[in-house]
Design a protein that fits this description.
With 814 residues, this protein is of the alpha+beta class. Helix 21 runs parallel beside helix 23. The longest helix is centred in the last third of the chain and has 24 residues. The termini are far apart. Bound molecules: zinc ion (ZN) (2 copies). The site of one zinc ion (ZN) has 7 residues, from loops. The site of one zinc ion has 7 residues, from loops.
């Protein structure tokens, strides 16, 4: 017997060449019908520099799912592309003079090479980059479709401005008052900007969360971001300016307790109101100071409340009382109308403010100590309402307001319109012109798309778009009247590019349209979307909005882009996020060079449950490497020693033991992969099988040993495709990816079982036979699947699940 040495640097390129040459992972749109179609998609990478460990993780997850579904019989679409516009390439251009396109293309080349070296099963025929005119032509088309539908509009607004990046930011890109990207303190400016009217879709974006299989915490983040609340819109009259100021309140039942009125510093009328009063200068100073603080700081409950009187008052519509007006930074312009009625007796922040400024605190709901937020009968609220339970009073007071023409029931959303224009170079040009005659804003005709990004010399931000410097490009003719016109010089937020790329993959080479709706209907929605939880709000919300808007315009036949979502955790090292400054970065390339892609991929999924963060360990990595080497060596030696034979039909002794282990592993890995993402326990089951094969190799028959090792190779294929393909071929002569996913033989699955007690809130609700040695996840899933457990859990929130293996599962709900 020759010495068999596991050498990934020889094995891996050999199989990659086969897959590339045979275009193994390409799927066709034409041959629909026979096999169910499945669309497995990881979020596309932003190409900047080299891929990092997070990329290795997310594409290892997606590839495992893609391989599993293929071998379960699906036609799987698993494409790749690049989110290639954006600020880092542009900032790099400013720093180094390298054109953003060149830097981006160099990075894309590095991603392509590494994806191939990792053996990710990508359909390369559909590859795209969002900075490619063949792609952004259709981004521009979508913009125009939204524009024609009234969903894209240009308007003046107070916008968040990053003084460092010299561009506006979407609300979502401002974190605690700072630029999400560079950390600079964000300023407010009044500017004309382009908006997408995502707020028109607020209710549908909320309602349709019920129709998709997403992690509950992601749905909660989306719900909170949409921020729906019910209440009333109430108009307070300001007699000096003869203006009505509306407020939104969730507590119309407390209207009689409103003893003052507060406006946000950004409210456009604040300075006008203060003008000519003794407080004018004081208000001006206060507003200037307030604008530099972050919303989170301003809204914090424990912060001392500050404000300045405006020297004016408004009339409370329910009792005609004149109440003083203030400007105070605890009121945010983004929420409601930018003004509030203050009810200090029943709101903590209003209470703090009233105490600080010596204002009246008037109880209107009976109950506990002030400030009182609880339920109770009304008081001090006039003969019509006093004594009514406050919940009931809400609708009665709304009815009164409606009858009096002073307000109405209303729903408020926290969600704001999506600000999409950017004063930057490296983005998709907005395809409209501004006519110098009378036509106003005129869309570029669809047949003239794409509006190509012009070449410029100087990328440096100057507070206007660098495109404005491309004079020859800017000057154009108006498509409507033929007179002189100027091109729009703002570019689009890169989130626009990534809001539809998953649709383009389905029909990536279509030159006549963004897609053929029938082709799209074959693949969409994405069956399994995978990405980081950091995209739980922006990207996912925008993609859902695009899908709904385009469906309304007749371009799509579905309402949600991602039927199921999985969010993977981060890889840390020594307990901290990997970063160059900490010096704790593990580069995928160095791991792949040293141990091979299969080790890197398998280890990253073995390190812990993939949905959680996990800490990198070099010892763990070597352990996985030894396991793959052992599997491959056993397979090679076994294959070399004898000719292929079938496993015995009626196994006895060591054969029975080994075949049982093999069928147990088949059942276990199948269970773990089938919608559970339990990759770590799946890999661990294959490790057990390989250990058993090694232990029993001298006692078991050749057929049994070959079967066990071929099963191990077959089961590890989704994680370690090269090693698995090589080992499987040695043992069987066949290609593992062409084999159906193995099925466990129930006759060989005689596992020891025990009775698992299933409780809900400590009460016995069911019993079920559980396989001995089941892991916590398996037991948890088993218990939650029992009918009487479900009956007591459905409709409740699961707080936690206590699993005592060998005994019980207790589901705690509220
Ligand atoms: Zn910035
Ligand atoms: Zn014109």
């Amino acid at each position: 017997m020759t010495d068999q040495h596991y050498d990934p640097s020889e094995i891996e390129p050999r199989w990659q060449a086969v897959w590339a040459q045979e275009r193994t992972w390409e799927v066709s749109n034409a041959q629909a019908g026979e096999r169910p179609r499945s669309y497995v998609l990881e979020m596309l990478p932003y190409p900047s520099g080299e891929p990092h460990i997070g990329h290795l993780k997310v594409y290892s997850v997606g590839d495992a799912i893609a391989h599993f579904r293929r071998r379960c019989g699906d036609e799987v679409l698993h494409p790749m592309g690049y989110d290639a516009f954006g600020l880092p390439a542009e900032n790099n251009a400013i720093a180094t003079g390298v054109h953003p396109r060149d830097a981006t293309n160099a990075s894309i080349a590095s991603f392509q090479r590494q994806f191939r070296e990792w053996g990710i099963s990508i359909d390369w025929s559909r590859e795209l980059a969002t900075c490619d005119p063949r792609y952004y032509r259709w981004t521009q088309w979508i913009f125009l479709e939204l524009f024609k539908a009234g969903l894209a509009e240009r308007r003046e607004a107070a916008v968040k401005w990053c003084p460092h990046d010299q561009t506006v930011l979407a609300n979502e890109q401002v974190i605690d008052g700072r630029c999400e990207r560079c950390g600079a303190v964000v300023e407010l400016r009044q500017l004309e900007q382009w908006f997408f009217k995502i707020t028109d879709y607020a209710q549908r974006l909320l309602d349709d969360l019920a129709t998709i299989d997403w992690p509950e915490h992601v749905k909660t983040m989306q719900r909170n971001w949409i921020g729906r609340s019910e209440g009333a819109r109430v108009a307070f009259h300001q007699p000096d300016l003869d203006v009505d100021y509306p407020v939104f309140t969730t507590r119309p039942d407390t209207l009689f307790g409103a003893t003052f009125f507060v406006m946000a510093p950004e409210h456009p009328d604040v300075l006008r109101l203060a003008a000519g009063t003794e407080h004018e200068q004081e208000v001006r100073d206060y507003v200037n100071r307030a604008l530099t603080a972050s919303n989170a700081e301003r809204g914090a409950l424990d912060k001392a409340k500050t404000g300045v009187p405006l020297g004016r008052s408004v009339l409370n519509p329910v009792n005609g009382e004149s109440i003083p007006m203030f400007v105070a930074d605890y009121v945010l312009m983004e929420y409601g109308t930018g003004a509030i009625m203050a009810v200090p007796a029943h709101d903590e922040r209003d209470y703090d403010f009233a105490r600080a400024y010596g204002l009246e605190v008037r109880r209107v709901v009976e109950g506990g100590e002030l400030p009182y937020g609880g339920e109770g009968p009304l008081t001090n609220s006039g003969a019509d309402f006093d004594g009514l339970p406050n919940r009931e009073a809400k609708s009665k007071i709304i009815a009164w307001l409606e009858a009096a023409g002073r307000g109405s029931g209303a729903v408020n959303f926290r969600l704001r319109d999506w600000l999409v224009s950017r004063q930057r170079y490296w983005g998709c040009p907005i395809p409209v012109v501004h006519c110098e005659g009378d036509c106003g804003i005129v869309p570029v005709p669809v047949e003239d798309l794409p509006v190509l990004l012009p070449e410029i010399e100087d990328y440096a931000p100057k507070g206007r778009s660098p495109l404005a410097a491309a004079e020859d490009w800017v000057a154009t003719t108006c498509p409507a009247c033929g007179g002189p016109a100027r091109r729009e010089t703002d570019t689009m937020d890169t989130f626009v590019d990534s809001s539809w790329y998953f649709m383009r993959y389905c029909d990536a080479r279509n030159e006549d349209a963004a897609w053929d709706p029938q082709v799209l209907a074959e693949w969409m929605p994405v069956d399994q979307y995978i990405g980081g939880v950091e995209h739980a709000i922006l990207h996912l919300m925008y993609a859902r909005f695009f899908t709904k808007a385009l469906a309304d315009l007749g371009h799509l036949s579905f309402q949600e882009p991602f039927a199921a979502l999985f969010t993977q955790g981060m890889i840390t090292r020594d307990g901290a996020k990997m970063s160059k400054s900490r010096g704790n970065v593990v580069s995928p390339q160095s791991i792949v060079e040293r141990y091979g892609a299969d080790t890197a991929r398998s280890y990253i999924l073995f390190i812990g449950p993939v949905e959680h963060d996990a800490d990198w360990s070099d010892e763990g990595l070597e352990g996985v490497h030894r396991f793959l080497a052992r599997l491959w060596r056993l397979a090679a030696e076994t294959a070399e020693a004898t000719d292929a034979v079938d496993p015995p039909a009626s196994p006895q002794g060591a054969d029975l033991e080994l075949l049982r282990k093999a069928h147990w592993a088949i059942a276990k890995v199948t269970f773990d992969l089938d919608g559970r993402f339990a990759f770590n326990t799946a890999i661990s089951a294959v490790m057990e099988l390989v250990n058993e094969s090694s232990r029993l190799r001298s006692q078991a028959s050749d057929g049994a040993l070959r079967f066990a090792l071929a099963s191990a190779a077959s089961l590890i294929f989704p994680f370690a495709p090269h090693t698995a393909a090589d080992a499987y071929e040695k043992l069987t002569g066949a290609r593992v990816w062409e084999q159906p996913w193995p099925a466990a033989d129930p006759a060989l699955l005689e596992r020891e079982t025990y009775e698992l007690v299933c409780q809900v809130n400590g009460k016995l609700r069911d019993r079920v036979q559980a396989p001995s040695g089941s892991g916590e996840e398996e037991l948890r899933a088993l218990a939650l699947a029992q009918p009487n457990v479900r009956a007591h859990v459905d409709g409740h929130e699961i707080v936690k699940v206590v699993v005592v293996p060998g005994k019980l599962v207790n589901v705690v709900v509220r």
